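User: Please predict structures.

Assistant: First:
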Amino acid sequence: MTTPTSAVSAQREPELLGQTVVVIGGSAGIGLETARRACTEGATVILTGRNPKRLKQAALELGAQHTAAFDANDPASLQSFFQSLPTAIDHVMVTAGAPHYGPLLEMPTEEARRGLTEHLLLAIEVARAAAGKVRPPGSLVFMGGTGARRPRAGLGIASAATVAFPTLIASLALELAPIRVNLIAAGFVDTPLSASLLGGDLDRRRDELRATLPIRRVVGPADVAALAVHIMSNTALTGATYDIDGGQQLAS
C-alpha cells in the first residue's frame, strides 16, 4: 500500500523583516557588507559615515532609507543624529574607528589617550544616544578585534583597549536591558582598512593566512556581516563577545 505524500515548501522568512538597522561606519568594508546583508534579510538600513561622497555611493547601491555624514567620535554629532531619527529603530551596528599601533614609549601622549579610550568612549556615547531610540529586544553590535589580545611590542595600546572592551560591553548589556549589547571580535578581515594598514604587505599577509588558518582562506566582510545579522536576529544573545578569525588564534 502506498501512502500519498505532499511536498511542503519550507521557505525561510527573512531574519530582519520589517526592522530598521543603523550602520555607523556603513560606507565601506564590514559596515557596508553588514548593511547589504541586512537588506537581503528584509531590513531598512540607515547609513552613516565621515565621507559624504562614499556614503552617497553606498546608499545608492543599497537603496538606503537615509544617510548622515558626521564623525561618530563627536558626541554632539552622534546625539544629534539619533535625535533626528523620525521613528524608532531596531539595531545599531558600529564599525567606525581604527586601532592605534606603535611603541608605548614613543607614542605621543594624545595619540595614546585616543588609542586607549576612543573605541570605549564611542561605545558609551552610542549607547547613551541610542538608548531612547532602539526598540527592545533590539540590539547594539560593536566591532572589536582578537589580534592584540596577546601583548607584543608595538601593540600595547591596542592590547589594553582590546582586553577592556568585552567587560564594557557586558556592563552596557546590563544597564541597557532589555536592549541587547554584543561585541564581534575579528581577526584579520580583508577590507579596505586592512589594505591601507598593510600597504605593500597585503598580498603576503593574504598568502600567509591561506596557508596557516584552519579554514584555509581569508576571512572577508561577508563572513562578519553574516555573524552580525545573526546576533541582531537571535534575541537570546546579549553581553557577549563573538570571535570570528578563521582560527587565527589557534594557528598563532
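Second:
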Amino acid sequence: MGSGIAQVAAQAGASVKIFDVNPQALNSSEKQTRDGLAKLAARGKLANDQLGEIQKRMTWVSSLSALEDSDLVIEAIIEDVEIKGQLFEQLESVVTPETIIATNTSSLPISRLARRLKHPERFVGMHFFNPATVMKLVEVIAGAATDPTVVAQIVATAQAWGKVAIPVADVPGFIVNRVARPFYAEAFTALSEGAAEAGAIDALLRAAGFRMGPLELTDLIGQDVNFAVARSVFESYFGRTRFVPQLRQAALVDAGWLGRKTGRGIYDYVEGPDSKAPTYVVPTPTDEHRQLASKLVDARPGELLPCADILIGKTRGLTARTESNKCGRPVALLDWFSIDAEGPVGFATSNPSASDVAAKILAAMSRPAQPIADRPGLVVTRTLGQLANSAGDAVFEQVADEEGIDAAMRYGANYPFGLFAWADRFGRTALVETLDAIATETGEALYRPSQYLRNWA
C-alpha cells in the first residue's frame, strides 16, 4: 500500500521519499515500483522520458531523519494504535511544525491516533484503497483536533493526484467499511437460511451489476480478515444490530477455511474456479409471456400482474405465500433486476404451479430463472435495500452526504451504482415500504428503515 501511494504521488509530479525500518521491505518496494512503472511504459501508458522523470522523483531511505523537509508524510504501517503512535511521536521530532502527518488507517479512530501528538491539528486520515495505483477513492478523515484547512489541503492534494477525495467524519469504518457490511452479511444470511446455493447467490449479485458476488469476494479478501472487520465495526458501534457479524462466517474462520489463500473457504478452490457456477435450463416463452414481460419491466414493486391462473410481480418485501394469502391466487415474485443487465433473476412462488410461468416470463427477457426459497425480500432486493439502509444511517449521523457516500461506494468498493441512485431508481417510498415488510415478516428490527430514508420518503 505504501509503495502504491508513493507511486501515485510521484506520477502526479511530487518528489517522494519511501521509508521503512526493514531493508528487505525497502528493496522489495523499490523493485515492485520500478517494475510497475516499466510495465506502464511497455503498455504505452507512460513515455520513456516520463518514466525517467518519475523514477528520479522517487528515493528509498532507511533513516527517518531523511523526511525532515517533507510537506506531507503518509503513514501506511500495521493497524496497531501503539505502534503507529510511537512512529508519530518520532516523526514530530523530525519534521517541521507545518508538516502535515496523515495516516492510511482503514479502521482506527483518527482522534485516538492523534492523542500522542504535540500538534494534533495537523494530523488527518488519508485512507487509500488497494491497489492505490488503480482505485480512485481517498477518504479524508478529520479528527476532533484536525484543522479544517488541513482537511481542505489534503482534499486538494488527493484531487491533484487524480483521486476522488471525500471528506468523512471520524467514525468506525468511515464510509466504505461501514456502509458495505450488509453486502457480506446478507449473503451469509441467505446461505444460512437455505435461500439458494452459494454459487447462485453470487451469480444473482453479479447479475445485479457487481463485479464479484459477496461470498466469492470474502474468499478473495480472506474470511479471517473480512470477519475481523465485521467484528470491529459491530463492537465499535456497541453491538448495533445492523452490523451484526455472521455465525456462518465465524465457523469458516474456526475451521481455518479462509478462502483462496488456504485453498478452501465458501468454495473449494482445489476443484477449480468453475465448480461454483450454477447451470440453467431456459424454457421457450409464448407471445403471452413476452407481452407480460414487457409490462413487468415498468411495474412497481408489489404490483401483481395476471398470467393464466397466477399473479406475478416484483417483490415488495413480503413472501410469495403472504401475497398469495392476501389475494387468494398462486403468486410468483421476482427479485430486483435491471433490464439492461445479463444473468439470472431470482424468483420464488407460493405454489410450484407458478414456477414454469415465472421461468418463461424471464426467458422472454433473455434472463435465466434462479429459484429461491420463499423469503422476505428474496436476495438482491434485500441486500440492496439493507445497503441503502446503512447508507441512510451514515447520512443521518453526518458521516458524509449522499453524493459523498455514492462516490465512495462506486470508487472505493467498485459498486455498479451509488446506493442513493439505486434507491431513486427503486423508489424511495417503495424502498421504505419494502424494508418495513421485510422487518415485519422476519421479526428482525435491523431491517427497519433508516430514519433518514423514512424522513426523505
